[in-house]
Design brief:
The complex is a heterodimer of chains A (148) and B (73). Chain A has 148 residues and is an alpha+beta fold. Chain A has 3 helices and 7 strands. Classes of the chains: A alpha+beta (148), B alpha+beta (73). Chains A and B meet through strand 3, helix 2, helix 3 and strand 6 of A and helix 1, helix 2, strand 3, strand 4 and strand 5 of B.
C-alpha cells in the first residue's frame, strides 16, 4: 500500500516507523529517498493530484518485482499543497544486501517519475499552475489523437 | 454508456458516451477543440488498466480515463 497524506509528509515519523517495521526482517540495507520542495523561481510550493487506483496497481507491480529480488519497497506521497522546504515524497527499498537496494531505489524513483499517475502544480500567488514542461507523457500516450 | 473522465489538470467534467470501442471515444473527443492538445499527450486507461489499442472493446458501465503527462515527487 502506498501511504498518501494531505499536505507535507512527516519525514521523521515515516522514516523511523519504516525502520522499526523492518528492524527484525533481516534486511541488511534500508535505502530511503526523500524529495523536498526547493525554493526556486519564486514558487510558494508545489501541489499534487493523485489518481489512486492506477497508482496502487503501479506500486503492486513494483512490490512483486522487489520480491523476486528478496527486497521490499515502501512509498509515501503528499496530496494537495506542500510548501518550500517541506517534503512531498519518500521512497525506500529494503534488501538483504546493499547492491540490490542501491540499484532498485534508482530504478524505482525514475519509473515513478515517468509513470506514476501524479500531477504537479507550482503554487504562485495562491494559484495552482500545472507544471506541463516538467511532466512526462506516460508510455503509449497519444492513442486517441486520431489521424493528425 | 461509458463514462469518460479527465484526470489531473484537464478541466473537464466527465462525459457519458455510447461507445463500442475506444475508436468511438477517439472520434468524439477529436472533434472537441479544447481536447485536441490533450489528446496528443494523454495515456488512456479502461477500468483503471492502461491500454494501447483503439480496438479495445468497451461495455456498458466501463470507465475510460485520460491521463495527461505526469510528474510525481
Amino acid at each position: 500500500m502506498v501511504e498518501l497524506y494531505d499536505g507535507a509528509l512527516d519525514v521523521e515519523e515515516i522514516l523511523a516507523r519504516w525502520y522499526k517495521e523492518e528492524s527484525r526482517s533481516n534486511y541488511g540495507a534500508y535505502i530511503p529517498f526523500v524529495g523536498t520542495v526547493r525554493d526556486e523561481d519564486g514558487i510558494e510550493g508545489l501541489s499534487f493530484d493523485i489518481y489512486e487506483p492506477i497508482l496502487e496497481k503501479w506500486f503492486d507491480e513494483w512490490q512483486k518485482k522487489a520480491k523476486t529480488a528478496g527486497a521490499i519497497v515502501k512509498m509515501a506521497h503528499s496530496r494537495g499543497d506542500v510548501f518550500v522546504h517541506e517534503s512531498s515524497y519518500i521512497a525506500a527499498v529494503f534488501s538483504p544486501k546493499r547492491r540490490v537496494a542501491l540499484d532498485m531505489i534508482d530504478e524505482f524513483v525514475e519509473d515513478f517519475k515517468a509513470g506514476a499517475p501524479i500531477w504537479k502544480y507550482d503554487l504562485r500567488d495562491g494559484e495552482r499552475i500545472y507544471a506541463a514542461e516538467r511532466s512526462t507523457p506516460i508510455t503509449g500516450s497519444g492513442l486517441l489523437k486520431g489521424e493528425s | 454508456m461509458v463514462r469518460v473522465e479527465f484526470l489531473g489538470p484537464i478541466k473537464k467534467e466527465p462525459l457519458y458516451l455510447d461507445a463500442a470501442t475506444l475508436q468511438d471515444v477517439a472520434d468524439v473527443l477529436s472533434s472537441d477543440k479544447e481536447m485536441k492538445e490533450w489528446l496528443q499527450s494523454c495515456a488512456v486507461a479502461v477500468n483503471d488498466t492502461l491500454v494501447s489499442s483503439l480496438e479495445t472493446p468497451l461495455c456498458d458501465g466501463d470507465k475510460v480515463s485520460l491521463l495527461p503527462p505526469v510528474c510525481g515527487g
